[in-house]
Amino acid sequence: MAQRLISVWQPYFLSPDADDSSVVSAAVELEELGYHRLWFSAGFGHNVPARFRQVLDGTKRLGVATGILSIWHSEPAEVAAYTAEAGSAHPGRFLLGLGTSHAVLVDSTPGATYRRPYTKMVSYLDALDAAGQAPEGRVLAALGPRMMELARDRAAGAHPYFTTAEHTAEARGILGADRLLAPEVAVVLESDEQTARAIARQYTAGYLTLPNYVNNLRRFGWTDEDLACGGSDRLVDALIPWGSPGQVAEGIEKHFAAGADEATIQVLTGGEPIFPAEAFRTLAAVLL
Asked: Which of 126, 146, 149, 158 could serve as a FRET partner for 275 with CA atoms 20 to 30 Å apart?
């Protein structure tokens, strides 16, 4: 696709502490700054949260995407109906991001058992197809080659999360030139080395307990030492661009150079789950 789109990935937008008007105001500002799309988690409740439609209704051009909707927590027929209705109300603006989530989250859900996630995804896509949900309106949160091939064959592309530019290059090779590749890229706008890495490790520590992410990193040569204690300096630096706005932009550029079409930027602050408005204003000045 050879695009260079800058989007936002921010958990704030589904936070229970964020009221509807504040969320919509933040989305409007992102739209006015020129960001392409807003991604945020669909959580682990039943089907697509109302917050996505609130953001769509409150903005004019901004794309909105689920990053991601868990296939273990949502019914395909209802999701297909939601995407059809959102697409009718806001043509071309809603993108359905689907993922297999993680065993520790799925197994804690009554009635759900995390097993054979690839097979589960195939059957979920079959059900979406049967309900009329178009493949071009969805992407998969793919990490490994097999799921990436499924994203190529049964979706518009892939939305990898918690990955390096090396993974982006591999993903582009599997997807081919005509599929969307939109990796999440977490960043820290902080030039002090110790402070920046401390903020980054508040983010990496949790993800480095999840087998899906750990196994994916191991495929690229990261060792037990790299994966311990929130990540080695080398791993943290590979995953999280940090520093001045210009240095962060250089880190994001590595994903574009590796074949990304769309970088979905998550600003890490290390503090309360508030919307980092000033950081996105600063990044807009150098990225957009």
From this structure: 158
